[in-house]
Design a protein that fits this description.
HSP40/DNAj peptide-binding domain, about 375 residues, Helix Hairpins, 3 domains
Length: about 375
Amino acid sequence: MAKKDYYNILGVKKDAKADEIKKAYRRLARKHHPDVNPNDKVAEDKFKEVQEAYDILSDDKKRKVFDRFGYYADNLDVNSPFGAGASSGAGPTGGFDFSGFDFSTGPSGGGGSSFRDIFSDLFSGGGGARTQPEAPRPVPRKGRDIEIPLAMSFEEAFTGMTTNITVNRSEQCSRCNGAGDIGGPIVVCTTCKGSGQVMKTGGRLQFSQPCSDCEGTGRRREPCSLCQGKGTTPKSEQVKIKIPAGVDTGSRVRIPKKGHGGRLGAEPGDLFIVTNVGKHKFLERKGDNIYVTVPISVPEAALGTKIEVPTVEGRAQLRIPPGTESGQKFRLRERGFPSLRNPSLRGDQFIEVKMTLPKVISEETKEVLRQFEKLNSESPRKAIGLE
């Protein structure tokens, strides 16, 4: 009989406690479970080996036999000074044979429970088919964060704002102090109906995860009647929030400890305000800079002038030098948005001028343009080789 080191298989020391062995088994069983590794013979064999090791080490009598003789068989007597040999046909698992087992449909020959059913509690925190689930011990747990969207105008994002919003949050239950129970008898968890798993939806996918109310065991103590076992009770609260100048769409403003309440004295989660900044009629923001297009007339471009341009703070004057071309850009320093990282810094505003042609209505206007063409007869296409 080939001897196996079950302690080494589970990765624990020989003096490991029962809960250490259980924890190691659950971790390795999840890792090598056939449902997680379909059509993987190596993982399947490893899972059998892990199950075999746990079968021996989780049983006090079998463990004593293994510790004394270095292997286990049903006919070995731990109290015997000699130790009999293993009975014929008895394997190191004490007679549990996987050879005829179909991992998709159940034992060969049909009619049996599937492998998935037999070991379903492995993924619900049950810790193996041989271990009776226990009610988890409540532990302090920080409250969950809350995200709330906030719509604001272009100007409000520039100046910042202070406002009050209603937050539907939770706080620690005053009756059970966040434990979720008051020390009553152990019952089936009502949240997961004893399965230890709850279904979650993410986009088009559905997946299961361990139930947070029973820590995946499917068992818990009788829930508190005030909070129904949640450890928290609902609360609607007016919260004053301050949005700093310079936020943009998607900025997250954190208000500490205004999220959902914690359990057993743990601190609450945080409240995050996610901003959604509206568009401006004329101005466009890119980072901390502002951009705007301003039309100018042909005489203004040719002769130069001073014009008024819109900014987020009102109107500002811009000097147009003589000979300005359509599409030329000018900069107003520090007329952009404040920097969120350094409020003492500001972006710039860039103005692009676009030349507009006059509407030719009267014969007098047409004659003026003909005279202008005679005085400026050079072809504008000369630069590209066309005259």
